[in-house]
Batch of 4 targets.
Target 1
Amino acid sequence: MKRFCRVFTYFLLCGVLSALHSTPTFAGQGPDTLTTGKPLDHLRRDGQHDFDFNFGNWKTHILRRLYLFTDSVKVIELNGTVKVRKVWDGRAQLEEIEADGPTGHFEGMTLFLYNPESHQWSQNFASSSDGDISNPTIGEFKNGRGELYSRETIDGRVVLLRGVWSDIKADSHQYEESVSDDGGKTWVPAFTANLTRDNSAPTASAYSTTGTP
C-alpha cells in the first residue's frame, strides 16, 4: 500500500514559499518590518515541537478507501504498529509502520522535518515495496490541529491532497488523508489511521531525546 500523498508541484511550492518568506509593506507596520521588508520572525510561532506527541510506540487501525471519485465506498482495513523516534532534538522524527490487511503485509517509513525559516513541517513517505521517498506534504499546526498539503495525480487527475493530524491526546490521535478535485471546495476521505499508545512495547533509549536516532 502506498500513501496517496505527496507534493505540491514545483511552481505551486515556489509560490507558497515565496508568500511565506516575504511580507508586503503596509501602512501601520512596525519599524523593523519597514526597514528590512521581512516579517518579524521573533513574533512568529515556533512549531518545532508540534509533533512531539507522536514519539513512542503505537497500535494503528487503518481504513483505506479503494476507489476515489466514484460512488463506491469500498474500504480495506489494516492493523499494525507504528514506532516513532526523535531526531535533531525533536526538529525531525522517523516513523516506521508495519501493518497487515487483505492485501498482505505492508511496511512504510515517514520522515518528518521542521523548517525553522518557514515555521512549517514536511512529511515524506516511503514504502518498502519500491524504496522511493515521495515528495512531501507541507504545512503547520494551528490550535492543536496539523494540516499539510500537496498536489498529486490520481488516476490521471490532478488533485489536492490534505493530511490532517487531529484529536491529539496523550495516548491517542488520528491521521487522515483526503483528496479534492475541485480546488478544495469538497474533500473525499482516502486514508484514516487511528492510533493508540502501546504501553506494552519497550520505550527506553530506542527513542532518543538527545537528537541521536
Target 2
Amino acid sequence: MIVPVPLKNCPYDVHAGPGLLDQAGSLAASVVKPRRCALITDSNVAPLYAGQVENSLSDAGFEVTTLVSPAGEKSKSMAETSSLCDRMIAAGLDRSSCVMALGGGVVGDLAGFVAAIYYRGIPFIQIPTTVVAQVDSSVGGKTGVNAPGGKNLIGAFHQPRIVIADTDTLSSLPEREFNEGFAEIIKHAAIRDFEMLDALDDLPALVSRNVAIKASIVADDEFETKGVRALLNFGHTIGHGIENAAGYGRFLHGEAISLGLVAACRLSVEKAGLPEPNCDKILSALARYKLPLSLPPDIPVGKIITALQKDKKFHSGTIRFVLLRSPGDAFVSDEVTESDIARQIEALRD
C-alpha cells in the first residue's frame, strides 16, 4: 500500500506492507540518486535487519556505511548526535550523502536530526521497524533528541524523502514493544477514526490507516502553527511528563502515553462533555494491549508537573491541552489548569 503525504514543498510517499526491506534499495533510488549513505540503526535492530538492507542498498548502487547506536531512549541525546556526526565525517560522508534510519522511533528521531544538521541538511529516508514508528513517528518530519529538562526539546523539522514500512519486521518485536505502539493507534482512533478501535487486527491495513490520518493532519499544518497538528498531542502532555519524571527507560514511550491518554480522556469527560462510554472504550482498548492504566506510587506528582512546565506544549506558561468533545472531535483547550492536571495525575494512582 502507498499512502501519499501531500506536503506543499516536499511531498513524499509512505510504502507499507510485507517484504519491503528487500526493496529498500530500489525504493530509495526512486527518490535520491544512489550515493554514499549512512545507515543508522541500533544494537537491537542491526543483527536482525541491517545486513538485508545493506544488500538491497548496495544492489541499487548505494555505498553504505552502517552506524550502530546503543538501543534505548538514552541514545536520543546530543552526545550520541555528536558521535554519529563524527563517525560520518571520519567515513568521508559529505553534503552529497544521505541518511537512512533503520529502527524504531528513537532511531528515526535521532537519525533524522543528524540528517537535518549534517552539512546543514542532507536527504533522509525512514525505514521504521516498530509499531510506534510505522504508524506515527516516521511520518511528519519531526526529528530531535531529549534534553535533561524534557523530551524532544532539541530538534528540527526535516521531512524524509520516502518512508519504507515493512510490516514483516513487527513480528520480531517483543510483546511489550509491540503493544506500546497501540497507544499511538488508539490516540489516532480517538481524534479521527473511532471505528478503528473495532479493527485492530489487520496490521498492514492498520498501518496504512494510521499513516493516512497522520499524513492528513501534517499536510494541513506541517510546522504546527495552525493548531491542527497539535491534535496529535492528545495524551502526550501528561504522558511526556510521566516519561521524563520516571526517568527515560522505565516506561516505554507508548506506556507513558497510555497513562497520558487515561488522564486526557478523564479530563475530556469533565471539561468537554466526552460521553463516559466513549472514555471507557478507549481505556478498554489500552487494557487489551496490556498498556498501563495506573501510575506507580513512587513517582511524585510535583516532579511530573515540573517536567510538564518545560514541555513544548506550554506557550509562555499557558497550557495548551488537547481534549475530546466526542470521538473524532478533538480540540486544543486553554481552560485546563495546572491543578486540573495535578488532580488527574493523582487519580491515576487509583
Target 3
Amino acid sequence: MRSMKIIDTISEIKSQLQGYRKKGKTIGLVPTMGALHDGHAALVKKCVAENDISIVSIFVNPTQFNNKEDLRLYPRTPEKDYKLLQKLGVDYIFSPSVHEMYPEEDKRIFDFGQLDKVMEGEFRPGHFNGVAQIVSKLFKIIEPDNAYFGEKDFQQLAIVKEMVRQLLMPVKIIGIPIVRENSGLAMSSRNQRLSEEQKINASEIYKILLESLSLKSELNPKKLTDHIMEKINRVPGLQVEYFQIVDGDNLQTIDSWNDSDYIVGCIAVFCGDVRLIDNIRYK
C-alpha cells in the first residue's frame, strides 16, 4: 500500500505535485467536505483507478452555507476519513484551514444564468456561488486533469461544468451515479444526523420516486409532481421543500414529457431538521 500524505498548506501541495506534473503524470481530485461514506468511496475508487496521482480534499467550505446552524452541525470525522482514504489507496489528502483557503474574503460573483436560480439555488441563496468559489480555488491549486463529483448533487454537477466552461479550465468533470443504502436512501454525510426511525421514514423518498416511473404514462409532469409531493408529505416526519421535473441540461421545468430527451426529477426533503436531496431520471 502506498503511503498517504496529509497536507494542510497550499504551498506544500503545489510543491508536491509539481514534480509529477513535469513527468506527465495524470492527477485526479475528489473535492469533499469530509464525513466520508460509501458514496464518496465510489468517487475515490474511480479517481485512484483512472489517475497516476489521486488527491482528496477535505474542507467544510463556509461560503456555501447560507444557514450558519447547518455549518455548525455539519459532521466532521477526520480520523475516520483518513483511515478510509488510506485503505482506498489515496496519495494525498489536502485538508486546509479556512484561513488558508480564504486569507481574505472572496468577493467573486459568478453568473450561471438560470442554472443557479432554480431548485437548490432558489432555496439556498448564495450556495452555488460559494461552491464555485471553493471549487475554482481547488482547481487552481491542484490543477487536476480529472475531478470527480456525485450525481446526487445533480444541480451542483451542472454548475461545476458550467464554471469550468466559463473559466476555460483544462479539467475533465466526471459524474458518478448515486450510491444508496440498502433501504434505497441516497448516501449523504447528513444521514449521520438521522435517528434509526428517521432513516426508515427517509427511505420512503426513493421508494416513492421509483414508483413514479410507472405513472409517467398516466400523468403529465405537473400532475406527477403534485402526486409525489403529496405522497412524501404523508410520511411521518417528512416535508418536501421542492420537487421539480426538469430538462437535465438547462434545469428548467418541463410541461410535457416531449419537451426534452433528458428529463430528471430533483427533490429536497426535510426529515426533522435534516435536509436531504435526491433525484431520479425519467428519460
Target 4
Amino acid sequence: MAQSIESLQPSLVWQIFAGMAAVPRPSKHEERIRAHVKRFAESKGLTVHEEQIGNLIIEAPATTGHESAPITVLQGHLDMVCEKNSGTAHDFDKEGIKLLIDKEPKTGEPIVRADGTTLGADNGMGVALALAAAIDPAVVHGPLEILLTIDEEAGMSGAKALTPQSFKGRRMINLDSEEDDAIYIGCAGGCDTNLNWRLGLSAKGNAAESCRVIVDGLRGGHSGGDIHEGRGNAIKLLGRVLSRIDCDGLRIASMVGGSKRNAIPREAHADLLGPGGMTAQLQKAALAVEQEVKADSFESKVRIRVEKAEIDKAASAGQSAALLSAIAALPSGVLGMHPKVPELVQTSNNVSTVETKSADGSIDVVIGCLSRSSSGSRLDETKRQLAAIGILAGATIEIGNEYPGWEPDLDSPTLAKCKSVYERLFGNAPKVLAIHAGLECGIIGQRVGKMDMVSFGPHIIGAHSPDELVYVNSVEKSWKYLQAVLAELA
C-alpha cells in the first residue's frame, strides 16, 4: 500500500505523508512522530531544535543566491484527531493509519482515505508539504524555519509554550487549511467548559426494567469547520430520546458519548433503570426521534435503538432528571453569524463529550463543551451561559484552555504576494477568508509578537471523523502553489 501511495504525484510529498501515517501520533502522545520527523530531517542534513514541550523547529538554508531573503516560517502540527467507526478494530496508540487510494463517489476524483479511521491529513499533509519544500533541490526559497507544534487538536499547548525566542522568522505560512482555492487570514478563538455531576448510586430497588439506548450512524465532523451544516449531535439526540418518555422513575446508570473535544459526536449511549413499561416507551421514542432526524437533516444513516442490559445500580430519578434537563438546555450548533463577514459563523458551541466514571459508590458524569467565537465578548457570554445551565442543574463548572482568535490583516504583504501568485498560476483570484475553526496563528501571534501570517492547504473534507479524505489532485495543486509562493518570497 505504501508503494501505491508513493506512486501518486507529487511523489516526495506522498512519501513523507505515508511515512508519517505509519507512526502513531495521537494528541499528547507525539513522542514517536517527533522522533520520526527529527530522524528524517537530520538525515537530509537539516538542523533540528526540539523545545522542552516537544515542538520541533527545523532550519533549512536558502537556495543559493537567496540567502539574504527574510526567513519564511512554514507551520503545522504533528498530532492528529483519532476517531474510528464503532465496527473498526484499531489501536491508535500502537498502530499506524491504513491508507487507501479510492475515488470520490460523486465526482470520481482520486482521493486518499483511511480504512475506518481518521486519515490524519489534518495536519500530516501540511507537514509533508513543508518538509518536501525544505529538501527538494528543485524548490527555490529563502531561509526556512519549519515550526511543528504538538497537541494542536487537544489543547494547543505546543503553540501556547512558544516564546519570541523559539524561532527567528516573522513571516509565516500556516499549512493547516482545507480548501485549495482559499487563503485564510483569520480564525476564531475558543475555550472548553466542563460540567461535572457526582451522582450517588443506589440499588435496583423497585426498578423493574433495565436497558441501554444507543445512538450511532451520524456523520460527525469538525466542530469548527462543519458546525454550520447542522449535523446531528449524538449526545443531544440521546438526551432527546430519554426526555421524550413519560417516566418519572427513569434512572441513569451511565452515559457515554463523543470522544474528542473538537469533533461533533457521532455516537452515544446510556444505561438505564426504570419501572415497568420504560423499555417500550423508549423504543417508541427512539423510533420517533430517528424518523424526525432523517426527515429534518442530512443524517440519513442515523440509528437509535434500545437493547437489553443488566444493571444493578443507578442514580436517583431526581438527579437523572436534572442531568437530562441540562443536556436539553445546552446549546449545540451555530449561535451567531459574523456581522461583517457574509456566511462566516461568529459564535458556536459543540456539546462534545459525555463520560461516566465510578467514584466510591457514586458516578462522576462530565459533559464537555467546546465554544468558539471570533468575538471575545460573545465567547465570554457563551461560557457564562453554559455555566449557568450547569449550576441550575446542580453541576460544578470548570472553564479552561482558552485561546485567542486571529484578527485578519487585509494589508498583509505576505497576503498580497500570495494572492498575486495564485492569480498568475491559476488564472483567477483566490478566496480570502476567515475560518470559524481554530488555527494556531492567533496563539502564535499572541505568544511571539507581531507576525505576518496567511494559511492555505489542500482540499480535505471530513476532518476529525472517519470520513476524512484528501483529494489527490488538490495536493499536487497545493504543492505547485507552495513552490511558487516560496520562490516569490525569496
